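haha ok so turns out i had the wrong file open the whole time. this is the CORRECT one, sorry everyone. sequence first:
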Amino acid sequence: MASPPKTGAGVDSEGNRIRLAAAAAALATVGAGLGLRAVAAGDVAKYGGDALYTLLIVALVVLGAPRMTAWKAGAVALAFSWVVEFSQLSGVPAELSRHSAVARLVLGSTFNAPDLFWYAVGASAGWLAVASRTGPGRSRSA
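then structure:
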């Protein structure tokens, strides 16, 4: 008896599992950010939000590229966060933020050098989270 034709379902079940975990992590990170803003103020909320911003970017990178290694996902997220921060020196994000709440959330408005450190904290946390999910001795292909 011949086996049934393959439908493509489950072709990349590990990739789908990774995407599902990344999507859940992204939602949890957004929830953590909103929760942090609700219960904290000042530097704790600001710098915690910076770290969570980059952690969210790590989750979105893994969602889009589930086979990317943990260090590459963290590096991409850190680079993106730093590019956004340095772009604030141009004044373009500030102008866009005046017209759009989404632009304000994604791009910010004012350069703040300490943010760069907290983005690195978020990228490191993301790297650790992704690396712990792949487990020792199991690496994903780039």
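The chain has six helices and no strands.
again sry for the mixup
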